[in-house]
Amino acid sequence: MGTLRRFDTISEYNAFNDHETLHPLVSVIDFSKAKPRRLSRTYFGFYTVMLKDVDCGDLYYGKHTYDYQEGTLLFLAPGQIAGLADTGELYYPKGYALVFHSDFLRGTSLGQHIQDYTFFSYNVNEALHISERERQVVMDCLAKIDSELRQSIDKHSKKLIVSNIELFLNYCTRFYDRQFITRDNVHRGILERFEKLLNDYFSSDRPQQIGLPSVAWCAAELHLSPNYFGDLIKKETGKSPLEYIQEKVIDVAKEKIFDSTKTVTEIAYNLGFKYPQHFSRLFKQRVGYTPNEYRNIN
User: Fold this and answer.
1) How far from 254 is each of 248, 260, 267, 297, CA to CA, in Å?
2) The CATH number of domain 4-182, selected from 2.40.50.140, 2.40.50.1020, 3.40.190.10, 2.60.120.280
3) Which of 20, 103, 1 is nearest to 61 (CA)?
4) Domain-by-domain residue ranges, the chain?
5) CA pair distance 247, 293, nearest whole angstrom
6) Residues 52/94, Cβ–Cβ less than 8 Å
7) How far is CA 210 from CA 135, 195, 206, 214, 271, in A?
């Protein structure tokens, strides 16, 4: 995959892209002003949102490659590594980036809930593909942030810059909601695969061997990041993946309870519970009866 570039500070990233550092913790970068470079994998020590205006091939993220198309917004949290496959040729970058350090958010409302913007932990293949109208909104937001960075610093500067970053991220949340809707057929297929995954899991001996299926395991089996998977299932069903899994567990448990040759403890272990009392507590919460009460009533 070639060498790894590392950018721990925004000033380093600005210098690499021939961009003036207006603020050490925030920057809006126009890639078209940067010199051509060889493609490589890159480590980012800060929040990064990139809008690419050129089709530049396959993007590496972890051990996988994805088609990184024109008109795509990519979100990276601090400490993530992403990059483009090195073809041996010079690459002329084109597009824009908003980069901001977590230190800039300290003491702000955005800093307290930045984790709510779960798309910073999505995989690259779950990037946001925006329409031309959405792109204009993105560009307007970036222009406002850049304009404020070019003003003389005063007591209002940080508040206004953070507010505009938050406005931008809120628009991105709206655009992702639109993408969930417009890709509804694809997502329904994922929901069906999730249901089949759980059915196959509980009809096998996996629960006894490795326990209850976790959300992270289900996401990995469906080739999705846990956050994207969680957001998708919530939007499709109104339930979190954990709630969906628990409902499946209860459905399977109800069938097994009718087998009077099995004790509740045996059923709990067969379902993957490490402690039978955890099974009984969940069953009571979901059904309103303990497993034994449910068996006797029915």
Assistant:
1) 10, 12, 10, 12
2) 2.60.120.280
3) 1
4) 4-182, 185-297
5) 19
6) yes
7) 46, 19, 6, 10, 10
Task: Return the CATH number of the domain spanning residue range 185-297.
Answer: 1.10.10.60
Amino acid at 128: L
The continuous run of DSSP H or E covering 173 comes out as helix 157-182
Structure tokens at 252: 């399977």
Binned average pLDDT, 10 residues per bin, the chain of 298 residues: 82 96 96 84 92 57 43 89 68 89 95 94 81 93 96 91 97 91 69 91 93 94 90 88 95 90 93 94 94 88
Closest among 253, 235, 242 to 218, alpha carbons compared: 242
Return the structure tokens found at 145: 């942030």
CA distance 130 to 138: 9
Cβ contacts of residue 27 below 8 Å, gap of 6+? Answer: 10, 13, 14, 19, 21, 97, 98, 99, 100, 149
Other beta carbons within 10 angstroms of residue 289's beta carbon come to 14
